[in-house]
Amino acid sequence: MDLPVMPPVEPMLARSAATIPPGMQYEAKWDGFRAIVFRDGAELELGSRSGRPLTRYFPELVAVLREQLPERCVLDGEIVIVRGGRLDFDALLERIHPADSRVRHLAEVTPASFVAFDLLALGDRSLLATPQRERRAALTEALRGARDPLFTAPATDDLDVARRWFAQFEGAGLDGVVAKPPELPYRPGERVMVKVKHERTADCVVAGLRHHKSGPVVGSLLLGLYNAEGRLQHVGVCASFPMRRRRELMDELEPLRMSDAAGHPWQEWASAEAQAADRLPGGPSRWTGKKDLSWLPLRPERVCEVAYDHMQGDRFRHTAQFRRWRPDREPSSCTYAQLEEPVHYDLAEVLGGRA
């Protein structure tokens, strides 16, 4: 491979903001695997945000991109899976599998799509120093003939349209809006774009914790909500605490520590069968390898309020943010019924009727 922009390349990133800023180019914020595609003739590589290759996990995309992309190019975009008119991140996670036979099977039953939103090189020319508005025009022209499952991400410079997208697109599984300064060059690894994500709050039961990687202080709190059958379901974690607060939390939660998981609503997490059947804390992760996911059970008696952006199935899609303890709430009152349900929006409308 001999391109004007060579792998690995760290993607350009975004910092968070509370409101959509004016005077920008706006795109939907996609919920998938960020990937940079490098194509030089028959050679094609999918590089992840962390630099880990994704190529072997998406053979169906490799074939499509070889067929549809310009002979020599570098694109930034997102690998997504569409099911029922929505993005399905859980199905995407399943694609990271060590067995080639499983990878090939999933490529057939849950094929992925690629949504391109930036062009870093074309032919022998690097576009890293080119302004965003010019890169966008070049991307649109380069992918003019693209067809499902290759898409060009919709973009607008109309603030009112961006606000409407922010309200509507969540129902299709997207999680906000990204704003890009029109004169911005591509700056790998730097947070120079702006992302605006939905934020809501929920009262959750704290039913366990994990230690921090540095030692026996709180790394994350395991959160639960009761479903319609009265079962406490694991809904996610909150994890962003200063070190001093991690130590304080360990002391605060010590009276709730259980010697083992017997009698705990999630006691089955210790069994291999349960780990195989569901995505549970304490189980092995194909993506993180040997990362320690063990947990300590707590009596489910305390409630905290957390902020979250959106749901993926019955779980928080991203790490929730701790807001405060809620001593006025009974754990049994923490149910899924409190969660706001976004209005459904078909992803085909986002991608111009082609999803």
TrEMBL record:
Coiled coil: none annotated. InterPro entries: Adenylation_LigC-like (IPR044119), ATP-dep_DNA_ligase (IPR050191), DNA_ligase_ATP-dep_C (IPR012309), DNA_ligase_ATP-dep_cent (IPR012310), DNA_ligase_ATP-dep_CS (IPR016059), NA-bd_OB-fold (IPR012340), OBF_LigC-like (IPR044117). Residues 114-231 form the ATP-dependent DNA ligase family profile domain. GO terms for molecular function: ATP binding; DNA ligase (ATP) activity. PROSITE patterns: DNA_LIGASE_A1 (PS00697), DNA_LIGASE_A3 (PS50160). One of its GO terms (biological process) is DNA recombination. PANTHER family: DNA LIGASE 1, DNA LIGASE 1/3 FAMILY MEMBER. NCBIfam families: PRK08224.1 (NF006078). This is DNA ligase (ATP). The lineage of its organism: Bacteria, Bacillati, Actinomycetota, Actinomycetes, Kitasatosporales.
